Amino acid sequence: MAQPDSPAHVAILPSPGMGHLIPLAELAKRLVHQHNCSITFVIPTDGSPSKAQRSVLGSLPTTIRSVFLPPVNLSDLPEDVKIETTISLTVAREMKEPVKIPGCLPIDGGELLDPAQDRKNDAYKWLLYHTKRYRLAEGVMVNSFTDLEKGSSTGFARVPGVEGSECLKWLDDQPHGSVLFVSFGSGGTLSLDQITELALGLEMSEQRFLWVARSPNDAVSNATFFSVDSHEDPFNFLPKGFLERTKGRGLVVPSWAPQPQVLSHGSTGGFLTHCGWNSTLESVVSGVPLIVWPLYAEQKMNAWMLTQDIKVALRPKASGNGLIGREEIANVARGLMEGEEGKRVRNRMKDLKEAAARVLSTEDGSLSELARRWKNQKWN
Ligand SMILES: O=c1ccn([C@@H]2O[C@H](COP(=O)(O)OP(=O)(O)O[C@H]3O[C@H](CO)[C@@H](O)[C@H](O)[C@H]3O)[C@@H](O)[C@H]2O)c(=O)[nH]1
């Protein structure tokens, strides 16, 4: 409850999906740094927070706090449920299910340790404070042994560390502007046949590439929207011998890569993207031209704008069976990285990068006005 000259405390409720959390995290940083607001993220979820969510939230200044709402059980929804319904239910429902801690048997909330029971109590805040700091440690010694707590030790080993640095190191060794980054956002998945065509197309193109691969889903194209992680090892679905044949020239990473850092790396020269809006903006900010491959949501509209209006992207065509074939992928990848058409979109992207830098370096008038209104708001 802000007094006229005390800083506003803003609660941000991002709807599910990394593509919604990431821009709000950027907004939160601006509100803290430029307008002295304090921020609490209130995050809905259908399970335990994903690695990617934890990594974004963990990278924020300590003045930005986050609390996770109890996970919602969505298992009784019909199979053909649309993502908009799932998102709405995740934001609206109260959870009565046992808490799912990674690697552990689901446990009734009442059985959790005492300080977790009363959110108003200081002990609860200290519990959150200390547990969040565990991830800062290089390692953790635990007074137990694996056979006693198999599940939880596996879950614990999956907590994110310096993951992602592998691909940045690999990029360091590649020539300037030579690598095509291939990624379908936080939720995008392809069918098995399409994965095969994409892999063989990248191979045929003879371009360098960094591909964030997920296991296939033949039914929907946004199968990892909520969880990011593939359910099965994506490498099991690549064509036989593909990794060996492209070794050195291509790198495949499972499920997630540090995308903004990849896009701003000097070796990255193109981005094959599903056209999520954040991916689009991140590419613009880094001046990286695009190959557009829209999958769901409003991505076709973004692809249209990028190819037809501002003309910073090339678009491969699907064949009669709905698949984008390997030859088409190879041609478009070569076209972007080496062709005349690629040169044209690259130059336009360079101009846009400069325009984006101008916007980022100036004070945002509308945000200042909003912060001023929040600050002066009279609360009942
Ligand atoms: O391996 C990865 C994959 C993604 N990201 C990040 O995740 C975000 C993905 O956002 P976005 O490109 O917008 O894709 P979605 O997560 O699919 O976003 C949803 O929300 C967007 C609006 O916020 C819409 O434009 C999209 O269509 C919708 O799918 C970006 O910041 C990426 O940098 C990574 O860091 N590493």
TrEMBL record:
Keyword list, A-Z: Glycosyltransferase, Transferase
Annotated InterPro entries: UDP_glucos_trans, UDP_glycos_trans_CS
Pfam families noted in UniProt: UDPGT (PF00201)
E.C. number: 2.4.1.115
Glycosyltransferase among keywords: yes
CDD domains, A to Z: GT1_Gtf-like
SUPFAM superfamilies per record: UDP-Glycosyltransferase/glycogen phosphorylase
Annotated pathway: Pigment biosynthesis; anthocyanin biosynthesis
Reaction catalyzed: an anthocyanidin + UDP-alpha-D-glucose + H(+) = an anthocyanidin 3-O-beta-D-glucoside + UDP
Family: Belongs to the UDP-glycosyltransferase family.
Protein name: anthocyanidin 3-O-glucosyltransferase
Species: Salix suchowensis
Upper lineage: Eukaryota, Viridiplantae, Streptophyta, Embryophyta, Tracheophyta
